[in-house]
Amino acid sequence: MRTDESMYGHFARTARRHPEALALEVGGAAYRYAELEELSGRLAGILVAASGGAPPRRVGLLASRTVTAYAGYLAVQRLGATVVPLNPAFPTARNADIAERAGLDLVLAEDDGSGAGLPVPVVPVDAGGPDPQLARATAPPVRPVPRDALCYVLFTSGSTGTPKGVPVRHRNVAAYLEHVIPRYGLGVGSRLSQTFDLTFDLSVFDLFGAWASGGTVVVPGPHDLLAPARFVARERITHWFSVPSVVSLAGRLRGLTPGSMPDLRWSLFCGEPLTHRQAAAWRAAAPASVLENLYGPTELTLSCTQYRLPADGAGPAADPGETVPIGTPYPGLEHLVVDEAGRPAAEGELCVRGVQRFPGYLDPDDNRERFVEFADGAATVVREAAEPGEHLWYRTGDRVRTADGQLRHVGRLDQQVKVRGFRVELGEIEAELRRGPGVRDAVVVVTTGPGGDAALQAACTGDDVDTDRLLAALRERLPAYMVPEAVTCLNAFPLNANGKTDRKDLQRTLTPSADETRAGAAQRGRTS
Fold it and tell me: What three-state secondary structure class fits 86?
């Protein structure tokens, strides 16, 4: 293969062409491409020495938002090894479990003791300080890798309660970069926000979208995401990328004043449904920015569909609480929308195959029933797929609707629940809640009701929300079995490590006590 098709190859090519361009700004320090290349080479030398003189096969990276994290990522890629990001904020037991499941040879960790308790050798390094290891280390040669080799493995939450390893190949990332770099005009002078933890696959856009084109990765400080407009203006960001929750949080803190980001060129959102209300608030703050809503599971390499909002709010009017379409698939990808019988339909499960599809889970058992084959006009679930061939379609688990040539995300299949025997899509109730006066965002979860039956509880964020009025409006628009038992108004939703709404935390918060459950049952008995 050509070296520049690998992740490190993209970076190395840019370092040769633009050695004096800024590659990274983090923690008050700036690194030019030549400097970051030298630093990552020395780190690679340390890894080779720690593994007995031969390049390691699979390396954990336990660092976050420091130069060690970013140079370490490049160091692993330089060796042709597979990087497995670990989150220092995760419990040690979870990182240890991932280390074992990933089959790590060693872990490159920040020199702060965070690697204690892991079941594999840990190499502590402070790449931002006077670490004597770095002074002694020499850079090994860049190791070419086959295009089908794995570049990273990310672990996502599994339905069984154990993490699932998602391996991604160099050629998957190469196809992704080939599309996004020209689409978003990335190059020398581009300044990209880095809002995602390295355990979140969307971070690859920030890093390698920049490093493959000559742009600069700009890492926000601990509190910058609370005031994104201030960060964008101060750091002259040209390309913003985050989950939509950041918009809601900034709006609640009154940090998105109109015109506060006049020089921002591109605004990209992914990872959660983006509402028209969120899009309008961001657009008002960044009036010159092109805004796109993206969608994609980790298994399809970051994002795989795109929808560009019409300029100046042109286009058909939309309810502020409705979600923005996820658009159309990237080049090189094919999609199917199939109903429960596997037949093509206007609404159903989204299945995708093509150049960005991953090669199957790290544990082949996790591939069971995650792929379909399509023949004779119908999709058939593949029960066993130890090595899923490229002709198979990945089942995203997302329910979409096709309208006006665009895909619209209408909920997760695993958000389809049964209440009193009726099938209920939680996303449908959430969309109705968002239409309520003053409501910014809404989440519905399932809790245990009287007699152990499933019950619906809702939470919303907003200003001066009248929850009784909100419930009354729902009763006018939805069947009784779809109306939540209660709506709780919160200042903000809890977020998980990736910045997404933590539904499990909300579920614990909204689960009523035994006394509340009995009182609710009595009230329903009097009013039924």
Answer: strand
Residue 397 sits in the same domain as residue 463: no
User: Are 42 and 119 contained in the same domain?
Assistant: yes
- Asked if 292 and 309 touch (Cβ cutoff 8 Å), the reply is yes
CB 193 within 8 A of CB 206: yes
For residues 14 and 141, state if they share a domain: yes
Residue 16 lies in a domain: yes
Domain membership of residue 204 (yes or no) is: no
DSSP string of 139-181, one letter each residue:
PPPP----TTSEEEEEEE--TTSS-EEEEEEHHHHHHHHHHHH
pLDDT, mean over the chain: 89
Find out whether 120 and 109 touch, Cβ atoms under 8 Å: no
Q: Do 517 and 494 fall within a single domain?
A: yes
- Structural domain span for residue 369: 332-410
The CA-CA-CA angle for residues 242, 248, 251, to 5°, reads 115
Residue 473 burial by Cβ neighbours in a 10 Å radius (0-12, 13-18, 19+)? middle
Nearest to 150 by CA among 243, 233, 57: 57
480 is a domain residue? yes
Identify the H or E element spanning 29. strand 29-32
- The reply to whether 312 falls in a domain is no
Cα gap 395→373, rounded to integer Å: 10
Domain count, the chain: 3
Considering only CA atoms, which of 209, 218, 213 is closest in space to residue 191?
218
CA distance 363 to 345: 32
- Strand, helix or coil at 299? helix
- What is the pLDDT, as a whole number, of residue 524? 39
Q: What is the pLDDT confidence band of residue 317, given thresholds at 50, 70 and 90?
A: low
Q: Which 3-state string (H, E, C) describes 331-379? A: CCEEEEEECCCCCECCEEEEEEEECCCCCCCCCHHHHCCCEEEEECCEE
DSSP strand pairing (106-110 vs 122-125): parallel
**Is 4 in the same domain as 68?**
yes
Q: Where does a domain end: 410, 440, 465?
A: 410
77-97, pLDDT tens digit by residue? 999 999 999 999 888 888 999
Give the C-alpha separation, 296 to 271, whole Å: 8
Last residue of a domain, one of 169, 200, 233: 169
Tell me the pLDDT tens digit for each residue of 320-333: 778 899 999 999 99
